[in-house]
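Sample pair:
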Amino acid sequence: MAGRFTPRPTGTTVRGGHVVVPPGVPRQATPPGRRRTWTPPGPLDLGLVLGPLRRGPADPTFRATPDGAVWRASRTPVGPGTLRVALRGAVAEAEAWGPGAEWLLDQLPKMLGALDDPGAFEPRHPLVALARHRRPGLRLTRTGLVLESLIPSVLEQKVTTDEAYRAWRLLVRKYGEPAPGPAPERMQVMPEPRTWALIPSWEWHRAGVDDKRASTVVRAVRVAARLEQATGMEPAQAQARLEVVPGIGPWTSAETVQRSHGAADSVTVGDLHLPGIVGYALAGDREADDSVMLTLLEPYAGQRHRAARLILLSGRVPPRRAPRMRRWDIGRL
């Protein structure tokens, strides 16, 4: 893993994680942050690798800009930080701002899949083989951060994705803080654990989050340090630690470690749609449940999450027959 750092220019002022620009100076004149480059060992598709970190098209913590760059605003163990990543040929170039800048740059190779091993995957179905052939740049991200994946996953429990994305967007914009550096407009760093714990019940309600999910988030942030320690564990151990928190089950823990740990085998169980998609793609069984899905994925033991992602990327899904999940707006009750 090759990389280099460029120190923040002399004279730059940073307050609260933000680069302070003198009045009248255009936003694009913000001094550069710290920099690092990394050359991946094979093809890399930023959209495929980092896409799972995006919680909807208006996610305040994630932006994909027209120049092909991906911006992320994160709360790292050493403070908030903003990261911009873009590909120049085969090289990933990154720049970061804020107290968490150096931490984000240290994590860059892992976030772009350096610890992932796509070569360990052996397709055992023509559809899966074709999906992998068409997307050679797929690698599994590893952020090294638990809460930033856990909280939005809790918000996604038992509701539509649109409802969950709306809740995440509203709460981060109201209680987060502006992303450091020259981040695109309205980018925010998610709230710190104490802030999540102090959100009033009526604000959860306005965001469309029921008491059960809100309580789960509050219980999780109260033991935030213990949960973040799970990044040093194997994915199965990390899931077990997360599931000690009431309200966090196998679905939520899997969705979390897939992102925080790059867990290639942590397949999502308890999902409303995934079993039917996997069953239809691999066996023509649109009524498959979790047990059928796990049986079909058994040949991919150790790589079941990657297999499921490739199946989703293949676009082969059963024709919609059942009505969509009904949307509930508890903010109007």
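The radius of gyration is 20 Å.
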